[in-house]
Specification:
Shape: elongated
Strand order of the largest sheet: 2-3-1-4
Number of domains: 2
Protein name: Eukaryotic translation elongation factor 1 beta 2
GO molecular function, one term: guanyl-nucleotide exchange factor activity
Helix content: 25-40%
Strand content: 15-25%
Order of helices and strands: HHHHEHEEHE
Structural class: alpha+beta
Radius of gyration: 22 Å
Oligomer: single chain
InterPro entries: eEF-1beta-like_sf (IPR036219), EF-1_beta_acid_region_euk (IPR018940), EF1B_bsu/dsu (IPR049720), EF1B_bsu/dsu_GNE (IPR014038), Glutathione-S-Trfase_C_sf (IPR036282), Transl_elong_EF1B/ribsomal_bS6 (IPR014717)
Family: Belongs to the EF-1-beta/EF-1-delta family.
Keywords: Elongation factor, Protein biosynthesis
Length: 219
């Protein structure tokens, strides 16, 4: 399993193809799988690898929060397609013919990739439009340093609705011993908006003084 060597073009191509139909390496929200592959990649893929480039920039935008993504980190070879991208095999010394146009294997691989993309595009025409989603990071501030932050988070996570999934959270120092709750959620755009989140969370006014949108990114 795996993408192969992500420092080489073959590995980046494999990652790009894998992300053609996915937003993340595993599941529908950022996880340790994304962190491991991001670190293995090392640098932003070239712009011609559209899917891999988009994914890299998105994961990079989380900064240090990448370390707190949910899940268990595994070896990078555990993630990706069922078989790693094959490295080019050197020709035997006996074969002195110079191939100016690339090997048959490369041509076949390119042909298969083109067919796969064409089939995917055709399938999209007949498929119902994919649900648009966003990942939101909320900053929720308490009244003072005596506010029970565990209870506050419990209240926030009790907000449930179709199209809303809560993710990771952390407490961030603000001033004079006061900490704010920073929590991530993934929402379906046509079902959940930021006004709904604000209205529901501010109902817990025994704990919540204010709520701000720290980040809002389309998936």
């Amino acid at each position: 399993m795996g993408f192969g060597d992500l420092k080489q073009e073959a590995g980046i191509k494999a990652l790009n193809e894998y992300l053609l139909t996915r937003s993340y390496i595993e599941g529908y929200q950022p996880s340790k799988a994304d962190t491991v592959v991001f670190d293995a990649l090392g640098k932003e893929p070239a712009g011609k690898y559209v899917c891999a480039n988009r994914w890299y920039k998105h994961i990079k935008s989380f900064g240090d929060q990448k370390k707190k993504f949910p899940g268990q980190a595994k070896d990078v070879s555990s993630y990706g397609p069922s078989a790693p991208a094959k490295a080019a095999v050197p020709k035997d010394d006996e074969d002195d013919d110079i191939d100016f146009f690339g090997s048959e294997d490369e041509e076949e691989a390119e042909k298969r990739r083109a067919e796969r993309v064409a089939a995917y595009n055709e399938k999209k025409k007949d498929k119902k439009k994919e649900t648009a989603k966003s990942i939101i990071i909320l900053d929720i501030k308490p009244w003072d340093d005596e506010t029970d932050m565990k209870e506050m988070e419990k209240c926030v996570r009790s907000v449930a609705a179709d199209g809303l999934v809560w993710g990771t959270s952390k407490l961030v120092p603000v001033v004079q011993g006061i900490r704010k709750l920073q929590i991530t959620c993934v929402v379906e755009d046509d079902k959940i908006d930021t006004q709904f989140l604000e209205d529901e969370i501010t109902k817990f006014d025994d704990y919540v003084r204010s709520i701000d949108i720290a980040a809002f990114n389309k998936l």
